[in-house]
Amino acid sequence: MFLSKLDSVKNASELLNKHQTVTDVEMVSIHEAHKRVLAEDIIAFHDSPPFDKSAMDGFAVIAENTFGASQSAPKEFKIIDAIGAGDFSDKTVGEGEAIVIATGAPIPEGANAVIMKEYTTTEGDDLTIYSQVTPGENVSPKSEDIEKGQKILDKNTFIRYPELGLIASAGYDEVRVFKKPTVKVIITGNELVEPTKEEIDKAKIINTNQFTIKALVEDSGAVCEIGHAGDTYDEVKDAILEASRTYDVIMTTGGTAISKGDVVLDVIDEIGEILFHGVAMRPGKPAGAGVVNGKIVFTFSGQPVAAMSQFDVFARKYLFEMQGRSFNFNVVKRTSELKIPSQLGRTDFIRAVCDNEYARHVLNRGSGIIRSMVEANSYIIIDENDEGYQKNDLVNVVLFDSLLW
Question: Which pTM does this prediction carry?
Answer without folding.
Answer: 0.88
